[in-house]
Write a structure and sequence with these properties.
Strand order of the largest sheet: 2-4-5-9-8
Number of helices: 3
Helix content: 10-25%
Distance between the termini: 54 Å
Radius of gyration: 22 Å
Strand content: 25-35%
Largest sheet: 5 strands, mixed, barrel
Length: 200
Amino acid sequence: MLITFSKRVITLTIVTLIILLSLLLIMGKKKMTPVVQVDANEITFETPDELDAAADLIIIASPSDEFLDREHKVSYFDDGTIQDYYTLTEVQIDKVIKAPSDFNLSNNNTISIIEPVGIVDRSVGKRKLVTNNYEELKEKSSYILFLKQNSMGQYAIINNNLGKFSLDNTDSLYIGEKKSSEAEKFKNEVLQKYSIDETN
């Protein structure tokens, strides 16, 4: 009986160690990248009508990849300082609400859009650069997105966090200096304007 009890204790100890090691490995992979907040001047739109008028493309779409797996772009000045950064996020389009007449959707209904956030790898390690408290799109979450076409033909989110609205409540509504209640009101006005129901 003592041998059976000892075997159980040893087995339980080994199983516990395996579980702990597995958790440590998983946590190590999900290590947080330090965040650097970057303040920038932006054109902002105070009403859904202003936002609609400024947007070239309005879509309902979902990102297919996790943030770290997306294409992060950084350009530098000759002296090595950062000139620009952004993330190209591929989204699966579920519905086009507004589009220019020459807008052509790919066969698989995807498009790469620009988000004002990026990962830069410097000598001190990786850093996440975030413009004006922007919160990146969450993988497989559904959003209504307001996009403007740039001179390179790419579409970028406008109005920072108030140019994208989660339809399944996966984003917080903290928008820099704006209070959550103001952001929630703006979101509700947008959803009402386009007759969109949120999914919970």
